[in-house]
Amino acid sequence: MKEKKVVKKKKLRLRGLLTILLASYLLISIGYYLWQMPVKEVNFIGNNYLKDSELMAYLDTDNLQIFRLNSSKIKKNLMKLELVKDAKIHKNIWGTLTIEITEDKVLFYNLNNKKTVLASGKEIDKNDFLGIPTLINYVPENIYKEFITKFAKIKDENIALISEIEYSPSIVLEKVVDDKRFLFRMNDGNNVYINTLNIEKFNDYLGIFEAIVSKNGDVRGCLYLDSNSENNHFNNCYGV
User: Is 8 exposed, middle or buried (0-12, 13-18, 19+ CB in 10 A)?
Assistant: First the structure.
C-alpha cells in the first residue's frame, strides 16, 4: 500500500510540472509574439487641420515592432509640429497604433505680419486655413495679447462667421473712451462692435440676430456688443 501511494504522488507531481511547463511555454510564446508584432496600421484621431500624411512624416514606424516603439519619442516628434498641442499614444495586440491628436485652436490670420495666430499665442507661417477671419490693422501689443486670450473663448462655428477683424477704439470728442474695442465684419453683411471685456457675448450672435430679424425683418446693420448692458443696440450703422 505504501508503494502505491508513492507512485501516485510522483504522477501528480509530474502532471503539475508538465502543466507549469506548458503554461510557461504559452506565456513565453505570447510574449515573443507580442514582442515581434509589427506595426500593421496607424490611425490618427482628433486632427482637423493636419492631414494624416503630414503626421505620418513625423513617425518612423517602418519595419518596427509596435511594442518596441517608444511612445515618448513618438510624442516628442509630433510636438515638433506647431499645430500639435498634445498627443496620446495607444497600442493594441493586433498591431494597431492609434494616436490621439489635440490641435492648437486656429484663431485668425494677421495681415500685418502675414502669420496665422493660434489660441496659445503662437504665430505660424501656415496660411491656408479656411473659415478663419483676417485681422487687417495694427493692434497695440498689450491689447493684442489680451484679445488673443479672449478671442480664443469664441466657439469655432462663430469664428467662421467673421470675415474681417479691425481694431477700432471708441473715440468721443477726440478722446479714447474704449481702447479695447474691435469691429467684426461678418460674412452675412453685418458689422459687430465688441470689446475684450464682452467678447464672449459673440457666442450668442446667431440668437441675437435672429431676434433682430424677427422684429425688424431681414435687415443688415451694426450690432453693438461692446456694452455691459444686457440690451443689445442695433442700427443701420448711421445711428438711425
Answer: exposed
Would you mind telling me the total number of residues written for the chain in this entry? Answer: 240
Give per-residue pLDDT as tens, 151-167.
999 999 999 999 999 99
Q: What is the pTM of this model?
A: 0.80
> What's 124's domain CATH number?
3.40.50
For the ranges 9-13, 66-70, 130-134, 216-220, which has the lowest average pLDDT? 9-13
Report how many domains make up the chain: 2
Kindly state the DSSP code that residue 164 receives in the 8-state scheme.
E
